Each structure stands twice: as structure tokens, then as C-alpha cells.
Amino acid sequence: MTKKAERTTAYIIETVAPIFNKHGYIGTSMSDLTEATGLTKGAIYGNFENKEALALSAFERNRSLLLQEIDNKLEIGVEAFDKLFSLLSFYKQYDVFTLPLGGCPILNVGVDAQGNNKLLAAAVKETIKEIEGKIALVLENGAKKNEIRLPVPPLQFAKQLFTMIQGAVAMSTMTQDRKYLVNTITYLEYLVKQELKK
């Protein structure tokens, strides 16, 4: 692939990622994509096999931005508590972070793809597992170093924590009220202290 073709492909993905995320796979029309990119249908499909391949690339972009940010937050501090509170602090501002992405890619694409795009649905499921795994690793390392006390296995705690976070994201998205997010994360900060403190 030439440098110009690579730049065009990257431009298309970057431009259409928020549109797919906001309007969904079915809800995004070809005219939405040509209008946003300023390219013809032929130019877009010259870079992607079909709409599904483009939607998957768009999700992959948003997914990698989210995972990179989560990695950054989990690298902050030395102890497990520092890392967990850094992650929770990120989620307090999650709506601000996801604004340029067109909203939460896990919530939006996950719900939208369930009935109409198996590849996208599988990609979201994989992303959820990856995030839960990252949280579980922090918990496991924290328990090994005797920094925290784990009442349940690390992955079980990570899954419950992430379920509550995503539930708060869903509620604040559906109600357009960020208090659901802020209040739930504040409660989770308290819960983490109560449950994990030695």
C-alpha cells in the first residue's frame, strides 16, 4: 500500500468512526460516509472491501483509543489502590473522553450490533473481556504484594466492577444525566476501599 493510500485509509477510518459509533451499523448510510469524508462511494470502497469491513475498522480505532487510555490510567501509581482509583477517576470523566468518539463504543456498538452484525458484536465482547482482564491483573498483583485483600477471585471482582461502571455509562447515556456516572463511580470508590482494604 502506498503512503497516499495509507493516509486515505486512516483519514476515512478517523472520519467515519464517530458516525458509525453514534448512528450504528444499520443507521449509518453510504451518503453519511461520503458527505463526512468528501469522498465518493468508489473512493471509500477502494480502501475497504465493504461496509462491514469499514464499520469494523471504525470500531477497532475507537477500541484502541479506549484501551490505550485505560492502560495509561492503570500505569499510574505503584500500588493497586492507586491504579484502581486512577481508573475510576477516568470513568468519572468518561462521557467527556468519549464525546469525540461519538459516545461509548462498548455501549453503542455492543447494543447496536447484537442483532445485525456478528463480527462487531464479537469484537465488543472481546474488548469487554480485555478490559476485565486488565483490571483483574491489577487486583491479582495487588493481592500478591499484600496491598489489598480480595474477597473473591480477581476476575470475578473485575467483572462486577466493570459491570457497574458500564451500567452507569448506559444510564447516564440514556437519561443524558451525568449524575448517574459521577454518583456511581463515587460509590464504587467507597466500595473498593471497603472491600479491598486490608
UniProtKB/TrEMBL annotation:
PANTHER family: HTH-TYPE TRANSCRIPTIONAL REGULATOR LMRA, TRANSCRIPTIONAL REGULATORY PROTEIN
Name of the molecule in the record: TetR/AcrR family transcriptional regulator
InterPro entries: Homeodomain-like_sf, HTH_TetR, Tet_transcr_reg_TetR-rel_C_sf, TetR_C
Record-annotated membrane-spanning stretches: none
Matches recorded under SUPFAM superfamilies: Homeodomain-like, Tetracyclin repressor-like, C-terminal domain
Superkingdom of the organism of origin: Bacteria
Pfam families (alphabetical): TetR_C_13 (PF16925), TetR_N (PF00440)
